[in-house]
Backbone:
């Protein structure tokens, strides 16, 4: 069974770290990543840019583009895609395609990926 | 979770919202600040044991409000201090207040606080000092160090700024769209001023002043979270992130400026660059260009070039032309001329800046750039005269050293110096 482990923390606090503090945290996490990778259990890993860089596409007859992260609390996180896009405009286009293909009333939050490790889980 | 470092970080990040809400409540900056201090003291007492509240800002606002009421009563000498029981049931405190404080209130509160600190009637150094003290929560000692003045001088400066604020009418009603836009413009320029105080420092001052640039980025991020759809705030944040990404490369071991072309690009901070580029992309979607967005886009083109020779000077020149239109200034034209020299050679660039001579005759960098163009054209004698003139006009030792380097190159090589005159 594949499990997704989602990371939550205070963006304000994390973004206030100095480069040295950030590097130190990443180095400690990397030890865990290495172990998982050696065991062939680590799939793709991503560190997202802050929510200030987020854009949200709300599903509907004509999908609506909104600046900022997904803010509703009525809906739950059901899944995610990692898509390679030239520009934000392309990413919005892709999210709109997905929105038109799935008729319910949710949203797609688009977040640029700052750090990407492809991983190699079997 | 009760680690004191975590508590400090949480208090610091909740500070702008909490102080801003308390200022609206008490209609008084000093009282709001005192109330917040008191709330922090109680947090330090209660959180290590009980753990942090779910909504830190709401907790601080509630506790601070009660503490402030105590203070008002004490000043009125009508009643003794009420006991701590008044804030005993903190779970309820959060639930109650979190509902009342919707995002719109927060937004206008924080903007009002920033606007009051960056009040156009205050001299810019006072604006920045006040914002650092009140919004960012830096101590007077920390601010004094960053401004290279004594603690008591800084204390005085902040007191004077507060006295001046107390005399002006603080607008507490919800701002209309025009006022909101005006306040945002005043606040963004204050933030960029703060950034430059940190970013433009050189020599031994650079490490002590660097935190100013980081505080500015923090404030811009805060503003961007509150005003999600303002492309100029995206542009300002991106501009500062992209400029700050070069912090490690732009000064040499002696603290002298290293020109953009000469910087070791491996020292650029990729994490900041990626975030800056994403924000530029996001801002451009709005198709409402403004000066910060255009400057950020220029900075982004430099950031995207792996080597100096990969720089897209055609786009940069076009962007400077746009900036000239949005915000006409001879300094912008001077920068555009540098791009023109890369594209069409020093002849065209020199022709472009000659008409600026009257307006910029007292600006060291005008003579520096002019000297660089003349040197490229092989007019060594005129170039030397221009550089000498620039050195005489330099405001700081670093500026003078920067021009002297051009002069040294000219003397050494006697050949065209293919260098941009601004870092």
Residues:
């Amino acid at each position: 069974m594949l499990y997704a482990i989602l990371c939550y923390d205070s963006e304000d606090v994390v973004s206030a770290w100095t480069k040295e503090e950030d590097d130190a945290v990443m180095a400690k996490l990397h030890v865990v990543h290495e172990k998982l990778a050696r065991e062939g259990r680590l799939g793709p890993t991503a560190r997202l840019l802050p929510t200030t860089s987020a854009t949200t596409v709300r599903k509907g007859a004509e999908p609506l583009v909104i600046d900022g992260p997904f803010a509703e609390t009525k809906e739950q996180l059901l899944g995610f895609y990692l898509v390679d896009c030239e520009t934000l405009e392309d990413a919005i286009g892709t999210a709109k395609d997905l929105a038109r293909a799935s008729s319910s009333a949710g949203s797609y939050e688009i977040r640029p990926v700052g750090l990407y490790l492809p991983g190699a889980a079997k | 979770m009760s680690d004191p470092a975590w508590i400090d970080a949480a208090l610091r990040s909740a500070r702008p919202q909490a102080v801003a809400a308390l200022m609206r409540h008490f209609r008084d900056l000093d009282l709001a600040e005192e109330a917040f201090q008191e709330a922090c003291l109680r947090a330090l007492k209660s959180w290590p044991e009980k753990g942090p509240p779910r909504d830190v800002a709401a907790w601080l606002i509630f506790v601070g409000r009660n503490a402030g009421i105590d203070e008002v009563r004490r000043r009125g000498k009508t009643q003794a201090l009420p006991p701590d029981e008044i804030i005993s049931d903190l779970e309820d405190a959060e639930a109650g207040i979190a509902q009342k404080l919707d995002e719109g209130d927060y937004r206008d509160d924080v903007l009002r606080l920033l606007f009051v600190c960056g009040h156009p009637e205050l001299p810019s150094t006072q604006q920045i000092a006040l914002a650092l003290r009140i919004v960012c929560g830096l101590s007077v000692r920390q601010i004094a160090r960053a401004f290279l003045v004594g603690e008591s001088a800084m204390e005085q400066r902040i007191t004077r700024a507060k006295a001046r604020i107390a005399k002006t009418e603080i607008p507490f009603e919800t701002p209309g769209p025009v006022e909101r836009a005006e306040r945002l413009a005043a606040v963004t320029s204050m933030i960029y001023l703060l950034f430059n105080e940190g970013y433009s420092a050189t020599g031994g001052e650079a490490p002590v002043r660097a935190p100013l640039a980081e505080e500015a980025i923090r404030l811009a991020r805060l503003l961007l979270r509150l005003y999600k759809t303002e492309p100029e705030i995206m542009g300002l944040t991106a501009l500062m992130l992209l400029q700050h990404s070069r912090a490690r490369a732009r000064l040499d071991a002696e603290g002298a400026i290293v020109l953009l072309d000469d910087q070791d690009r491996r020292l650029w901070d990729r994490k900041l660059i990626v975030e800056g580029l994403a924000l530029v992309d996001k801002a451009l979607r709005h198709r409402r260009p403004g000066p910060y967005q255009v400057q950020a886009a220029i900075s982004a083109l430099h950031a995207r070039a792996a080597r100096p020779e990969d720089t897209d000077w055609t786009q940069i020149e076009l962007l400077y032309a746009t900036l000239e239109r949005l915000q006409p200034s001879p300094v912008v034209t001077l920068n555009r001329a540098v791009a023109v020299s890369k594209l069409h050679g020093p002849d065209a660039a020199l022709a472009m800046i000659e008409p600026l001579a009257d307006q910029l005759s007292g600006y060291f960098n005008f003579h520096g750039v002019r000297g660089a163009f003349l040197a490229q054209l092989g007019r060594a004698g005129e170039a030397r005269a221009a550089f000498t003139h620039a050195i005489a006009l330099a405001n700081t030792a670093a500026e003078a050293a920067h021009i002297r380097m051009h002069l040294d190159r000219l003397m050494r090589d006697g050949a065209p110096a293919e260098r941009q005159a601004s870092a």
